[in-house]
Amino acid sequence: MKTSEDLRQLLERIDHRGYPAYKDTKGVYQFGKYVLSIDHVQGDPFAAPSKLSVRVPGRMSGFPKELFDKKHKRIALQDELIRNFYKQIQQYSFQAKGSGKSGIISVTRCSQEILERTACEINTGSGDVTVRFEVGFPANGRTINARELKKILYDFLPLCVEKALYYGRLDKKRIQKVMELSEDQEYIRGQLEERGLVAFVANGSVLPRESGVSQRPMKGAVPFITPKSMEVALDLPYKGKIQGMGIPRGVTLIVGGGYHGKSTLLKALETGVYPHIAGDGREYVVTDEKAVKIRAEDGRSIKHTDISMFINDLPNGKDTVAFDTEDASGSTSQAANVVESIEAGTTAFLIDEDTSATNFMVRDELMQRVIHRDMEPITPFIERVRDLYEKFGISTIIVAGSSGAYFQVADKIVQMDRYVPKEITEMAKTAAQDYPQLKLPQEGPKNPSFDRKVRSNPSLKNKGRIKIKTMGRDGVMLNHETIDLRYVEQLMDSEQLTTLGNIVKYLEEQMFDGRKTLGQAIEILYKKLDTQGLGAVCDGSYLPGNLAMPRKQEIYACLNRYRCLGTQK
Ligand code: ADP
Ligand code: MG
């Protein structure tokens, strides 16, 4: 292996030359206590910065095995190390000078959620720690300024690596706490299953966020406190005894006046599919990891989806067993979201009336009297919600502040009263008795068919290499095709979208053969991701440091919104 000294000499040779001479630095160099790898060199100082990685061997980094011997612990420690590294390099970014992006040093900015990311990887066998980041190679105009790059590689980075990635240099108590929280969160997850719960919200949790643009906890918020009747006590392996609200499987209704905290509770449940960092306020809010937020999404495309359990006999005679549209309505989009989530293996729906299509959710008695069932293509969700639980095993948590219709079908009814939940099941059920009973359709929902075969889209492949571009948290582009993911609300991070872009590309290139169904292709891919990690969907010569793991449910959601999906019956 080449050494840091070789690199130093190379840099001296190319100093003051044209920018492309930087390309020669690509390679792997032994830097004393770690290995520096220059994976990709930018073409000019204004282009996206160069990709680098540092690998610290396990015997040097020195993290005890019990900090990363289980998957959830490893991911939590990796997340902590990215945050450490971020903090360190912040002090040095742009300290080396030059034109354009010269001198920038950057790494993933982690969100409140703890996600598996390529920015940091701990090898479970060797304990080697790899961190992937970017550096803007310095230049004046387009002339190499190697002296400034030497500052970064020989002065700044060794300090950052040492302070961020060596166990001996870190606050051991803090690292221990990261592991303990991860174990406690995993324990709660196990308890959901054991106790038949969809979600657990600990007393004292802070659910609201600081603002629409900050995911930090709101200061001075009313802390969460469970109604006595729904209290569940848990004995966590590290934190010990805690109490909170256990939401049982079945149909749960959250009601209450406007502005009393209903949507905030539901949002916390939506993100509870991921673990949260200490201090977030939602560290002990844990939701069934397969729960899916369902909402209306006018304008989305639908490909060969069987929405017949909700929609039938459309006036234009369109087939709803294999329904296609480029521009769905509120109700058809929400119906498709439900059915696609069933295919994606969800075990719970999370629904907020604020973001639902009313005609999909309910149809009141008077309307039923005037517009006869035969004239109405929609079987509203309220008429299916019980069967979805009893026949399909899928629970529903639904926020409904304006319609009492769901009282009749709910197992549990929770009222949010000035941000404090109260259980009002009996009172609400009694009140509902005076109202006309809900009439259910004669036939229950049939199992939707998921037999869409997928073939690759020739137009995408003809253009040569498929290029991926992520548009923040909103969507991802493959060549000129945009996949709109704004309303897939449980995607937390643009890095998950970048991964989804890679996944679609991989499926297009390797899996869509016209014989497999969409579900079969995704299941094979997902297994590969699960065993091989995020590298499984990357074909480049190096692993980029900007990928985060999405859930299987979001992989389905992404493919279902992909307008170029080549479906056939
Ligand atoms: P609803 O859906 O019932 O209309 P929201 O959940 O949207 O109400 O909450 C309304 C407002 O109250 C939001 O601005 C939210 O940030 C704030 N809020 C929610 N929960 C709390 C809480 N526990 N303490 C303080 N403010 C809260
Ligand atoms: Mg609301």
Just give the CATH class of the largest domain: Alpha Beta
Helix/strand class: alpha+beta
Query: How far apart, in Å, are the first and last alpha carbons?
Result: 54 Å
Molecules bound to protein = adenosine-5'-diphosphate, magnesium ion
Indicate the proportion of strand residues. 15-25%
Overall shape: it is globular
Which blocks of ≥5 consecutive residues have pLDDT under 50?
Answer: none
**CATH-defined topology of the largest domain:** Rossmann fold
Question: Could you explain the architecture of this structure?
Answer:
Helix content is 31%, strand content 22%. With 569 residues, it is an alpha+beta fold. It has three domains: 2-170, no CATH class; 183-450, 3-Layer(aba) Sandwich (Rossmann fold); 453-568, no CATH class. Helix 3 packs across helix 4 (146-165), helix 7 (330-343) crosses helix 15 and helix 14 crosses helix 15 (552-560). The protein is globular, with a radius of gyration of 26 Å. The model has no long low-confidence stretch (mean pLDDT 95). The structure holds adenosine-5'-diphosphate and magnesium ion. Magnesium ion (MG) binds next to helix 6. Magnesium ion (MG) is lined by residues 262-263, 354.
